[in-house]
Amino acid sequence: MEAKDILDHGGNVYDKLVFEMLEDKFQSEEINHYGYVLDGLPCLNEDVLSCHQQIELVKNCRMPPDIIINLRISDSDLQQRRAGMKVDPVTNITYTKNQYDPPKPEITDTIEDEGEEEEDDDEDEEEPEVEEEEEKEPVIELEDEVKDRLVTRPEDFPEEIQRQIQNYRELLLRPLEDYMANHDPQYVIQLDALITPTLLFKALMSKLVTLPIRVATVPIRLMEPGEEEEVPEDIDYEETMRQLAQSNMLGPRWRWRRSRWGRYCPVSLSDGNVITGRSEWAVAFLDKIYMLANEDAHKRFVSNPRPFILPPAPKPPCKISVVGPPLSGKSTLCKLLALKYNAKVLKVEELIEPRLEESRNEAVEKVRIEATERAIADVKEKYRVLQEQEKADAEELSDADDITGDEIEADKVDDVEEQNDDDLEKQDEKLLQMKKRMQH
Asked: 138: helix, coil or strand?
């Protein structure tokens, strides 16, 4: 929650919180059962913990790595590989130059003498094997649309690449060498990171096959969602177990056996409750059937069934740490190892990414709400100003009408008075004329 609060206020997650999240992941039930493949630790960031402290954190965690895999590559080769890298901004997938611009095959016509072929039989027998391995390397053919939108990241510019390589040599290389020197040399594997990921994984598996690494045992759900109708609720327990014993069989004559818990949920029993399990949540683990009560019990059992079963428990899971320079192929190799041994990849970026994504979505939603409220307020303000303007115009128009009416009335009165004056003058003239006539 602390990391989420920091992100909500627009800040960056402190590296200390990231390391605390990593420690919590080391102690989780999921890692306890499935094991892990550690990627990205130690890192070059020393804001909170130095490289030595990061290595001590890994060494002193609840489940320290048993095997260290070091990917080695020269500075010039690493710089050449990174200089040609481009990223798809839509899918965020990184491609090397050989993937988006593969070299065209050279066609050469060579004629060899039969005598030379007979003399070099031993050499020719080994070369086709290498060619066959190279042919098996999958070639990714990118569409023109994807190629057009590929861009170069700022960290893949030559100056930035040189700076990161220099920082790796000055800060991390010596602590890593000391870390590997103090580890059991039998469990330290050195690999050439210059070869392709497929060949690199094959070379690694040829060495891991000699070490006591076991694939994690995964609980198998006997009935997939939507198949519950095959086992009606009204049938008895024995019939239910017979049908479940034949579900998802590993072989033609293989059948799952019932556990000592029978029809009761082992997760509920560990919590002190006696609850009958349901066939839709039944799982198979170590050739036994376990009836689980609900979805929550199913999640807890699948994440780590060890606390809910009787001895013998499965063998300890794999614990591997992959180290090497930035972008030397660690992430790809970690994913292949996790897929091989059913382990979980522990990567700092992936641990923090869900919280970052959640914080981004909440920030976008918050900005959207604020922008909507601001837009509504602006519209209301404009409407209020418009109404006031219309009201003022109406009042001015009314005042103008009143003034015009008064002027018209005054003009009429003046006209009447002038007419009356004219009439009086005419009457006076007539009276004067009549008086003159009377006098004569």
From this structure: coil
